[in-house]
Amino acid sequence: MRFGSDSDQDPWQQPMDGSHASGSKAVADGPGTQRTQYPYVTGSSIIALKYKDGVIMASDTGASYGSTLRYKSVERIKAVGKHSLIGASGEFSDFQEILRYLDELTLSDHMWDDGNSLGPKEVHSYLTRVMYNRRNKFDPLWNSLVIGGVKKGPKGEEKYLGMVNMIGTHFEENHIATGFGNHMAIPILRTEWREDMTFEEAVKLVEKCLLVLLYRDRSSINKFQIAKITTEGATIYPPYSLKTYWGFAAFENPAQGAVGSW
Amino acid sequence: MFRNQYDTDVTTWSPAGRLFQVEYAMEAVKQGSACVGLRSRTHAVLAAANKAASELSSHQRKVFRVADHAGVALAGLTADGRVLSRFLRSECINHAFVYDAPLPVSRLALRLADKAQVCTQRSWKRPYGVGLLVAGLDESGAHLYYNCPSGNYFEYQAFAIGSRSQAAKTFLERRFEGYNDYTPEQLIKDALSAIKETLQGEKLTSSNCTVAIVGRKDDGTVEPFEMIDVKRIQEIIDSMEAAEEAPAAEAESSSMQEEDKGTDAAPMDI
Known about the structure:
The complex is a heterodimer of chains A (262) and B (270).
Chain A: E1 41-43, E2 46-51, E3 54-60, E4 63-65, E5 68-71, E6 77-80, E7 84-91, H1 92-112, H2 120-136, E8 143-153, E9 156-165, E10 170-172, E11 175-177, H3 181-184, H4 186-192, H5 199-216, E12 224-230, E13 233-236, H6 249-252
Antiparallel strand pairs in A: 1-4, 1-7, 2-3, 2-11, 3-12, 4-5, 6-7, 7-8, 8-9, 9-10, 12-13
Chain B: H1 20-31, E1 35-39, E2 43-49, E3 63-67, E4 70-76, H2 78-99, H3 105-118, E5 130-138, E6 141-147, E7 153-155, E8 158-161, H4 165-175, H5 184-198, E9 209-216, E10 222-227, H6 230-245
Antiparallel strand pairs in B: 1-2, 1-8, 2-9, 3-4, 4-5, 5-6, 6-7, 9-10
Helix pairs in contact in B: 4-5
Pfam family, one (chain B): Proteasome_A_N
InterPro entries (chain B): Ntn_hydrolases_N, Proteasome_alpha, Proteasome_alpha-type, Proteasome_alpha1, Proteasome_asu_N, Proteasome_sua/b
Keywords (chain B): Cytoplasm, Nucleus, Proteasome
């Protein structure tokens, strides 16, 4: 999902010495500049869902350099302003750049000092424009972003959860999972998610998804972070590990019953 | 030889600390036919007196929709006003495109004021000769701003600009304290009454005024900025006249106050 899967165009097969310029994949932006066309350090799935009091978001704290699990303690979920959380899969430095954009926005709101602030809906819309615009410059920000939040509207407290990806696809949902989670966690969320879940129930559900991803996604690690956003504001909890059980029959003998050469 | 040596360009100060060109632009606002604006917590109403340039012509439009949540009424050079309302429209639509949300009215008024201010500080420009009443709705409720050619802007509960606006202001000053809790219908009536004050004896009809409203219903749904139907305005005027005649027409009191010129107002005073 996150980066090209054609094996003959695998980014990791490209030379890393900056000689992209000779390849057909590089985009030159005038003389002397050369933009990153492939992800280098990437984070894996984000899981997020609405629950009774707000939105909960979770991810592991790993970041891979190619397929090497290079960094084990990076925060991929951050608070934006007073009403929103953002979580990111994909290129980690691109995420940091996005955070800088958002900081600029919230700072300027603060400086106007007129009481106006961006809600999750506005942040999501803004990011949608940024992501689609960069994709159209053939210089995408290599991420799938999840934006969750709660803000008081004219009709009372409004929960919001949406995502946007590197090509500008965007939508709102009650539960969202990016990356591998889009394949592995969505089926679980679809059967088990309810509108009126308590925080404890939501944490249980999220942990179930994270554990499945830990078992099946080679680039996930057993160090997770959960965050929530409610009317009280954002809380990002310290990282912790889940208990694993590797004694399942399918893990013991993965080849059994598998049709194919392996 | 010259009556005033300090008014040949906008950026030149008089020794008394005044910018004459800016003041002249503010005078232009007083030449235009009157506009009033007033608001409750949830609704804002704009009204304008329409005056045709000649018997043979129609009048110029003075009330413009800027976006679903905001609109303006203007007095002064309508041509300048059209330029500014186009600017406001583009600001609103750009904000809506990026953030999928309406531009807060305070920000809208601020951008307008900043634009007007630039014209008072550039030798090759002239100030806009138009005053705008900006009415709109945002998260914090209904708002009304007055934007002046000088680049100053103020928020109001109720205000009037244009020729003979002092009469309307006097009317509004007597009544504004209750406006926060007014219904849309009551706001419209007071807007029409205020406009009537500026007509100086001329009869108020649906053909010589424009009224527009924007607001939010109790359930939170937005009632977009909209010109009120001519037929409905006439009905309201008729009902007001009927009510007036009932309790023995209380003579047209001594409300013939002329504009308060003559007084040595401070330069930036509105």
